[in-house]
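User: My advisor, Dr. K., asked me to get a structural model of this assembly before our group meeting. I'm new to this, so sorry if the format is off. These are the inputs:
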Amino acid sequence: MSEDLTEPGGKVRLFVEADLGAGAEILLSDGQAHYLRHVMRAANGVAVQLFNGRDGEWRAVLDIAGKRGARAACDRRTRTQAASPDIWLCFAPIKKTAADFVAQKATELGAAVLQPVLTHRTIVTRVNVERMAANAVEAAEQSARLDVPACREPLPLAKLLAAWPAERHLVFCDEAGAPPMLEALKGVAPGPWGVLIGPEGGFDAEERTAVRALARTIPVSLGSRLLRADTAALATLAILQARLG
Amino acid sequence: MSEDLTEPGGKVRLFVEADLGAGAEILLSDGQAHYLRHVMRAANGVAVQLFNGRDGEWRAVLDIAGKRGARAACDRRTRTQAASPDIWLCFAPIKKTAADFVAQKATELGAAVLQPVLTHRTIVTRVNVERMAANAVEAAEQSARLDVPACREPLPLAKLLAAWPAERHLVFCDEAGAPPMLEALKGVAPGPWGVLIGPEGGFDAEERTAVRALARTIPVSLGSRLLRADTAALATLAILQARLG
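Assistant: The format is fine. Below is the predicted structure of the whole assembly, which you can bring to the meeting.
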C-alpha cells in the first residue's frame, strides 16, 4: 500500500453509524467522501480508522474510485471497545463560540453526555443540538475516542432534577460557596457521575436549594477565581477525570 | 450616584499601569475611554473598579466629560492585593484561535506567566505576544483577578531548561507515559510551579530526556485520552490549582 492514514492517534479517523466487523464494507457519508477526496487527497486503497461507539476501532481500506460514493472495507480491529467513564455534563447554554468550545473540549475530556440545561438566569435559550453533535463527532475523531458523547435536547433544570437517577452523583459547581472540589470528592462512592455548571449569572437561591436537595449532590468550589461558564465546565471535567484516574 | 458599575464580579473592571491610592487620579487609555463611552455608555461620575497588579482593587469615580480624555479618581480600596499562585505556563505556540483561548483561559485559571516555548516539532513559530497580552488583560478584567499574567517572548526549549530556577517544580505532560497527575503530585514540596505542554506532535526523545533531566521535573499523564495542546494546557492548570487548593 503506497500510503497509510492510520498513524498513532489516527491521521484519519472517521465515526460511522454502521456495524463494524471483519469484511464489512461501510458506505461513507458525502461529507466524509468530500473530506477524503478534497481535503486529505486520499488515494484509492489507503487505510483509515473507523469507529462507531460499539465495535472498537477498525483499520479499513478506502474505495473512493468511481462515482458510487466512498466506501471503506474493514480489514482488522485495531482497538477493542472500551467504555468511557460515565459522566454527564449538564450546562446552561452559552453563546455560539463558547458552545462549540464546550462541545469539543468536553468530548476530548471524556464526557459521555452533553445535556444543555435551562435555568432562571440562562440568557441563551436557543441550542443548536445538531451543531453540538457535529462538534462532538469531530472532536471524537481527533481525540482517539472510541465513542461520541450523546448530545441531548435542552431541559429545564426542574425537569433534569426530577428525573435525576438515584445512584448518579451530581458534582454541583456552587459559586455561592462549597468545599474545594478534590476535598469534596474525598471518599465518595464510585460513579456514575454528573457535573452541573450554571449560567454566567449563576443559579438563583431557589435553584441552589433544589439542586442541593438531591441525595447525591456534591457541592464543590473551583477556588476564588471567577471562571466563565465554559472554563468552569472544562476545569470541572478535567479535575473529575484526574480524580477518577 | 445615579449608577454604579462595581457590582459583584465587577461589571466594569479596568487594568491600569499607574499606582492606585486614595485620591489618585488615573488617566485611562483611549481604548478604555472608548469602551466606557461607546460600549458601556457609562455616565460621568459613575464608579468602576481599577487594579494594577500591585495595589489591590479600587473603586474609582469616572470623569469622562470633556475632551481631555477619560479619568478615574480612586475612591476607596475594595480588595487588598493577594498573590496569585506562582505558576508558569510554558507551551508550544499554537494557531491563532487556540492561542487566544489559552491566553484567556490560563488567565482565568490563575497562571502567573505565559511562556511560549519553541520545540523541534513546533509548527507555529510566530507568536503575537501583544495579542497574547491583550487577551490576558481582558480575561483578568473579567475574572476578578488582581493581576495580569506576564506574557513572555518565545524561548527555545533548551534555553528555557538551561535557565530553569532550581527550586521551581516543572509539571511535564509526557504523552510517552507517566503516572496520573494527582498521583505524581502526591507529597511534592510546595511550589513555585511550572507546567510544560508540548506541540501537537509531542516532544522528541532528545527533548524528553532533557526535560526529565531537571531535578524538579514531575512527569505526569492526563489519562488515555488524546488531548489537543490547548486542552492539555488548561486541564493541567485546572488540576494543579485544584491540587493546591
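One thing worth pointing out at the meeting: The longest helix of chain B spans residues 229-244.

User: Perfect, thanks a lot.
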